[in-house]
Amino acid sequence: MEETKNYLSLSTDHAATLLKTQRWTNFLAILGFISCGIVFIGGIMYGVGAVLTELLPGIIAAIVSILYVIIAAVGVYIYFHLKRASDALKTALTTGENEKLDEAVKHQYTFWKAQGILSIVSIVFLLLVCIGCIIAISMIPGKLG
Q1: Burial (Cβ within 10 Å: 0-12, 13-18, ≥19) of residue 136
Q2: I want to staple 86 with a disulfide (CB 3.0 to 4.6 A). Which of 25, 64, 111, 145 is the partner?
Q3: pTM of the predicted model, to two decimals?
């Protein structure tokens, strides 16, 4: 089966709007990387601080610290695709290369897919935390009835 290619033509206004969007996606990707770095450093500091102050047992502090590092790594993966989409879109708009526009769309698709999955996981996690809190509170004698 032969592949057919459809080419979009952009007006000057649309191209200018996409370039503004590209600047914002680039800015948000950089902010995302910075946020991931802060989460990573915070996770390491939490683990070290919890062990040194004996606030938590070592294994719990290590698990929490590892979770922070994993969250930071997932964030880097997500923002990497946003940054790649932004860079490819800028190249496509300045050079007119359709391949770069294809690359931008693919990276943006991956970014939004990962964001959607992360949103679902976050909602499920928060629901489980709420259920856990309700169960924990119900086990406190004399508090609910």
Answers
A1: exposed
A2: 25
A3: 0.80
